[in-house]
Amino acid sequence: MNKEGGFRKRKYDNMQPRNRKEERESKVDPSSPVLISFKSFQKELDAKHDKYERLVKLSRDITIESKRIIFLLHRVSSVSNIEELLNESSVKFGDVRLKIQQISQELIGEDMCQFHRAFSPGLQEYVEAVSFQHFIRTRNLISLEEINRHLIFAPKKEEAEDSEDVAVSDSQGEKQKQLCLQVTPTDYLLGIADLTGELMRMCITSVGNGDIETPFEVSQFLRAIYDGFTYIGNTGPYEVSKKLYTLKQSLGKVEDACYTLTVRGSEIPKHMLADVLSSKTSMSEHEEGL
Amino acid sequence: MSVTDLFSVIQSSLTADQDVREEIRKVVQGLEQTAREILTLLQTVHQTSGLKDVPNKCQKARDHFNVVKVHLEELKTKFPPDQYYRFNEHWRFVLQRLIFLAAFVVYLETETLVTREAVAGILGITVYRDKGFHLDIEDYLSGLLILANELARLALNSVTAGDYTRPLRISSFINELDSGFRLLNLKNDSLRKRYDGLKYDVKKIEEVVYDLSIRGLGKGDEPTEGKVVEK
Known about the structure:
The complex is a heterodimer of chains A (290) and B (231).
Chain A: H1 2-27, H2 33-74, H3 82-106, H4 116-138, H5 144-149, H6 157-160, H7 163-168, H8 170-178, H9 185-208, H10 213-232, H11 238-265, H12 270-289
Chain B: H1 3-43, H2 54-76, H3 84-87, H4 89-110, H5 116-123, H6 137-160, H7 166-182, H8 190-196, H9 198-214
Helix pairs in contact in B: 1-2, 1-4, 2-4, 4-6, 6-7, 6-9, 7-9
C-alpha cells in the first residue's frame, strides 16, 4: 500500500509541472516582490538546516567517543592499575569536550533551545560517561553544576578565568555566555538513567572477578538513584518516566546479585561464586523474556 | 552532596519549569479565544452576502488584533527572552493561525501577499530573533499555506456568490505563492507536509478558473449578482 502510494505521488508530481509550465512562466514575474522575499527565505532556511545537520554530526561523534570511554572504563574491574585507566579516560574526555566546544561555537548568537534536539543525544551520552568516571573515582554522583563547569570554554586566554568581566559589563557577559554549553536538567536526568545500566554491568562483571565489595556499593548507589527518580516521578518530562522501567530492572538485577552473594557467600568458596551468580541472572532474564 | 540532595535540586528546577509552562498555557488560551473570534468574523466572507462587506469586516478584525497584541505582550513577560524556543511549542499552533488570519485580512484588503514584517507589525512582535519575541520563519510559511487553503475555498464560494473575476485573481496569487514555495528546500517536517497540500489547492482553483473560462464567464465583465453558474 505504501509502495503504491509513493508511486502514485511521484507520477502526480511529474505530471503537474508539465501541465502548468507554460502558463506559469507567462504569469509569474521572477522579479516580483513575492519571489524575491521567498529567495531570502530559501537562504534563511537552508542556513538553518545546514547548521542543524552540522550539529547532528557533532552529536554523533560525541556519542561514539563517549561510548568508547565507557567501554574503556568497564575494564577497570579487570585491570589492577585503575589510575592509569582513569587518566587515559580523562585524556579522551578532552577530545570530547573539544567537540562540545565546537557545538557551542555553532550556537553563538543562536537560541540554544532551537537546536537542542540536534545535539541532545550526544550530551546525554557524555553525561553518562562523565558520571561513570566520577562514580569509579569517588563512588558518588556527579552534580549538574560540576558537569557544566567543565563545559565553559574560552577561545581567548585572557578571558578564560576572568569571572569579574562578566559582572562588569553586560555585553562582556553575553560573550562569556556564548562560549559555554549548559547541560539541561532533563539531559542530565536521562544521562544518569543510562548510567544505572552501566553500573549494573559493572556490578555483575566485578563479581566475576572475585570482587565482593563493589556489588554492595553499587546496589547502595543504585537504590539512592532510584529513590531520586521516584521522587521526581511525573514532574519530569515524558522520556524520564520511560527510563524508570529499565532503571527498575537494573536495580532488580543488582539486588539479586547482592542477595545471592549474602546467602551463598558463607557456604560456597569464593572462586565458585561467579558461576552461581551468572546462572542466577540468566534465569531471571529468562523469566523476563516470558 | 548526597544523591538525594542532587535530585531535589533537579526536582525544584523541573517544578519551576512547569510553573512557567502553566503560566504560558493560560495566556495562550486567551490568544486562542481571540483567534477563534477573528476567524468566525472572517469566515462570513464565504457567505453570499458576505463578500460585499469586506472592508468593514477587515476593520473589525483589525480591532481584534489589538487584543492579540495585548495578549502577546503578556506572553512576553512569562518567560526569559532567550528561551523562546524552549517553550515555543505552546504557542506555535495559535501563532500560525494568527499569521494566517493577518495574512487573510491583508489579502482581502489589498489582494497582496503579506510580508513578514507586516505580520509582525500586526501582531506587535518583531521579525528578528535578537530583538525579543519574534516571528519564526517556519511559522510564517505555515500561516501562508493555511491562507492558500482558505483562498481555494473562497474561489469556489465567490463563484457561487456571482463574483466571477475573483477566482482569476486568486489563481494568479496562488500561482505566485506556489512558485515561491518551489524555491524552498524543505526538510521532511510538518511544514513540508503542509506544503504538499498546496498543490491540491492550486488544482482546485485552476478547475474553478477552467469552469469559468469554458463558459466565457469572468472575462472582465461586471459580476452578475446572485446568478448561479449555468450548466
